[in-house]
């Protein structure tokens, strides 16, 4: 089970820890933050990019596939459902969209190339985001 603790240290500056590592999130100056760390969406995309990279690395190592380099780019935006060609037909209003660009270098045959594309979409964070999350929230305010 993953567990994270976050503490607000300034207007928007937040220190986050998992008990072993500590990192920071913040908002950019134009949104009222101090820009001392990535914003929450950058952290989310970074988690997705790290998971995709690690998943592909584990797969290629396990299968003995020589991968000479890997680069992963994710971007996030909101678009109107009517402007999203790949969205579900019942989507309405503004929707969240994550776009990926994954660059894998190596000497791959077509079957391996297709399998790597499939594996990239199977990282656990990707699957969690794609399938949705059930939240159980308790807020203590005193």
CATH homologous superfamily (4th level) name of the largest domain = K homology (KH) domain
Q: Which geometry do the CA atoms define? A: globular
Give, in spatial order, the strands making up the sheet with the most strands.
Answer: 1-2-3
- How much of the sequence lies in strands comes to 25-35%
How many structural domains are formed by the residues? 2
- Topology-level CATH name of the largest domain: GMP Synthetase, Chain A, domain 3
What is the ordering of alpha helices and beta strands?
EEEHEEHH
The N- and C-terminal alpha carbons lie at a distance of 28 Å
What is the CATH C level class of the largest domain, in words?
Answer: Alpha Beta
Instruction: Give the count of helical stretches.
Output: 3
CATH architecture of the largest domain: 2-Layer Sandwich
How does the major sheet shape up? Answer: 3 strands, antiparallel
Q: Mean pLDDT, as a whole number?
A: 92
Low-confidence stretches: none
Query: Share of helix among residues?
Result: 25-40%
**Assembly status:** single chain
Please state the CA-atom Rg, rounded to the nearest Å: 18 Å
Extended strand count: 5
Structural class: alpha+beta
């Amino acid at each position: 089970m993953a567990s994270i603790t976050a503490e607000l240290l300034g207007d928007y500056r937040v220190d986050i820890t998992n008990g072993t590592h500590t990192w920071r999130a913040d908002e950019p100056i134009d949104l009222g933050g101090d820009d001392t760390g990535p914003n929450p969406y950058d952290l989310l995309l970074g988690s997705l990019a790290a998971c995709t990279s690690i998943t592909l690395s584990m797969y290629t190592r396990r299968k003995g596939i020589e991968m000479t380099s890997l680069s992963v780019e994710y971007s996030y935006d909101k678009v109107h459902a009517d402007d999203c060609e790949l969205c579900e037909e019942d989507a309405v209003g503004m929707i969240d969209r994550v776009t990926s660009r994954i660059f894998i270098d190596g000497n791959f045959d077509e079957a391996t190339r297709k399998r790597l594309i499939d594996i990239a979409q199977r990282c656990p964070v990707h699957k969690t985001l794609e399938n949705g999350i059930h939240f159980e929230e308790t807020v203590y305010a005193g």
